[in-house]
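#struct-pred
JK: can someone run the complex with flavin mononucleotide? inputs below
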Amino acid sequence: MARLLYVEASPRKERSASTGVAKAFVEEYRKTHPGDVIDTLDLWGTTLPEFDGEVIDAKYAILHGQPHTPGQKAAWKAVEGVIERFKGADKYLFSLPMWNFGIPYKLKHYIDVIVQPTYTFSFSPKEGYKGLITGKKAAVVYARGGAYPAGSGGETFDLQKRYMEQFLGFIGFTDITPIVVEPTLGKPESVERTKAEAAARARSAAGAF
Ligand SMILES: Cc1cc2nc3c(=O)[nH]c(=O)nc-3n(C[C@H](O)[C@H](O)[C@H](O)COP(=O)(O)O)c2cc1C
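RT: done, structure tokens with the ligand placed:
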């Protein structure tokens, strides 16, 4: 029995293109992997620890190889809880809108919480940085109002997909399936077609995931 963590990063619920396509993935995944557990993390319905005060001091203490003070230890517990849920999964599905060429701030907050030395990456002068989440797959649904296809020149503005791949690669992922939904702003008939085509790609990715 495997555990799929689905991280939902659009606040638009049933109006969301990224969530809609991710739901098609999840539906097909449920059918094709009936024994698996799907854990949904709605980032807009979750309170994440602020990354300030004792929490940020706790991170620097780890980076400097120093023990946590009692205050840092207590504050760090909330970060550890979020990381534990993330690391407890065997496979990952993310869905997110493009916001100002990048990712929504709730997802950035989540990434700032889970990317931690000794938990999701390591550093040594000899080996440099190493991702610790290895041998696990991720699928990522990207929705964008415009279109940023490779070779169009527009792809240089796409910091959404580039950032997700950078972050996932940094913590150790090598098997990342992108599912792009674009453009989502335009004539209703063509947007519906775009979403339906992306949902079909998502279902086919889910079956083999
Ligand atoms: C705050 C905000 C910023 C946006 N920035 C961009 C952008 O930089 N480029 C783009 O193509 N679309 C942009 N959009 C449009 C969304 O990417 C598009 O509507 C997408 O379908 C949203 O995904 P969702 O439907 O899953 O929420 C933006 C939308 C919002 C609300």
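RT: quick notes.
Residues 10, 12, 16-19, 97-101, 143-146, 184-185 surround flavin mononucleotide (CB under 6 Å).
The chain has six helices and seven strands.
JK: thanks, will look after standup
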